[in-house]
Amino acid sequence: MLRVFSFEDSKEFDKIAVERGFSLETLMEIAGKGVFEAIKKRFKIKNLRVVVVCGKGNNGGDGLVCARYLSLNGARVTVYVPPQKLSPLSEIQLKRLENLCEIKTYGEEIFQDISKADLAVDGIFGVGFSGKVSEDYRLVFEALGEAKFVVSIDVPSGLISDGGFGDLVVKADLTVCMGALKEAVILFPGRSIAGELEVVDLGVPIPENLGNFLIEGEDVKGFFPSFVGNENKGDFGKVVVIAGSRKYPGALNLTLLGAIRGGAGLIYALNPYDIPIPYPEVIPIKEINFKPSALAIGPGFDDDESLFSLSYKILNVFPDVPAVLDADGLKLLKLYPQLLERENLIITPHPGEFSRLFGGTPYEVDRKRIELAKEFSQKHKAILVLKGKPTVIGYRGKVYINPTGNLNLAKGGSGDILTGLIGAFLSWGIEPFKSSLMGVYIHGLAGELVQNRHFRITEIADKIPEAISKL
Fold first, then answer.
1. At what angle are helices 414-427 and 432-449 packed, to 10 degrees?
2. CA 249/CA 286 separation, integer angstroms
3. Which candidate, 150, 157, 151, places its Cα nearest to that of 127?
4. Considering 66, 217, 276, 311, which has the largest number of Cβ atoms within 10 A of its Cβ?
5. How far is CA 253 from CA 173, 242, 277, 326, 350, in A?
6. Alpha-carbon Rg of the chain, whole angstroms?
7. Is residue 63 a contact partner of residue 101, using CB atoms and an 8 Å limit?
8. Quick check: 112 pLDDT over 90?
9. What is the pLDDT of residues 288-319, one digit of tens each?
10. Which fold has domain 217-470?
11. Distance between CA 72 and CA 163 in Å, rounded?
């Protein structure tokens, strides 16, 4: 998994690096060269026209180092610096550029230079930027908006730590992060302007307790168990789905479809309202007279008190059976908050549901999703899957960020399919934390495989086997 840093994590990481004997000047050299290497992967450097726009701080110093490597390798470089005094380290780097390239102060010429350039490097502000960009910088920001290709150092300038930005912000084609990915380029709306992401390894070991994590396909692939080849349906578990009501009968079938596509061995529908089930592989039941491998509870309950009491009774009868709780079923947590202390329980709210359970507004939950997921996982034993873009998983004080998914998932019933999918993985005997990561990653990937929004939500489920095959 890739590490993801907040602004505070980045400051702590710099402190740790210095304590380990790395000077800030050394780190700047590695960072600037890393940006150069990222450009080299994508462009032929010889005679490449590049404009490097630097700020007065150390982010600008990284840009100056990059400009030096570009110049030494045959690029035609123009550097722009602000009229203010540069940081001491940036001054050192600027001096090292003497006679290597053209150096100018911010001014109207920047428009002409950028229009002629093959690419521009944005080294104005780094990850610590907050507030709004002052009008003094409007000229350079507008000029960067005319560039053919923009490479931003660490984060696009103007982006603040929670991924927000004002009217002045750099839209990057490539963002090269230092040491680790940054939350600002993972969270929306910042993700929409960061372009392709790459990380420069600064050579400093990252402590295990620092930062959060971005899920990768290789991680999910590694969670699938190995099979001998003589397994039977029982080896893939028995999942019981409790979902749907008179008002929302479709929720039952969407949850069942997620479990089917997830590969559960035996799928049971506890169906007190005799909702028609179109899937012949599903076994309708009125009571559970066997021990299930997993439970998938909640979609489409509405305010049916009988379904809440039934679900709570089942959870009490089978305390050691892992369960995923979604949608209306999350109201159980208001009635029985002790459920949050079950280590084998996964809850999957969207921001609106989370806010109703734990306070705040949906907007606040959405903007603070990493912070809130971390706080939740420090207080409770249950695993939190906070849905959205990005979906985040809170577990034992850490947050795991899912990179897959798109607007195709923004349809009614999408979450029901996810509930069934996670339930299927639980039924295989995969531990709840790993089942959560697998479910959100594969569900998101299935959404990406659908061509556009003009589809039935069941087609997301139908893409799950293809998404798994891609792993």
1. 140
2. 16
3. 157
4. 66
5. 42, 10, 6, 15, 20
6. 26
7. no
8. yes
9. 999 999 999 999 999 899 999 999 999 999 99
10. UDP-N-acetylmuramoyl-L-alanine:D-glutamate ligase (3.40.1190)
11. 35
Mean pLDDT of the 88-102 span: 95
Burial of 454 (0-12, 13-18, 19+ CB in 10 A): exposed
**Residue range 68-87: mean pLDDT, rounded:** 96
As a whole number of Å, the end-to-end CA separation of the chain is 15
CB 212 within 8 A of CB 3: yes
CA atoms of 120 and 52, how far apart (whole Å)? 6
Tell whether the model's pLDDT for residue 77 goes beyond 80.
Answer: yes
Q: Are strands 345-347 and 323-325 parallel, antiparallel or unpaired?
A: parallel
Which tens digit of pLDDT belongs to each residue from 405-449?
Answer: 999 999 999 999 999 999 999 999 999 999 999 999 999 999 999
Q: Where are the domains of the chain?
A: 2-212, 217-470
Give the confidence band of 201 by pLDDT, cuts at 50, 70, 90: very high
Residue 300 falls in which region: left (phi positive, over 0), alpha (psi -120 to 50) or beta: left
* Tokens 């891609």 sit on residue: 470
The pLDDT score that the predictor gives to residue 434 is 98
One CATH from 3.30.1050.10, 3.30.230.10, 3.90.10.10, 3.40.50.10260 for 2-212: 3.40.50.10260
DSSP string of 388-399, one letter each residue: SSS-EEEETTEE
Taking the alpha carbons of 12, 17, 23, 25 in that order, is the dihedral positive or negative? Answer: negative
346 phi/psi in degrees, rounded to 5:
-115, 130
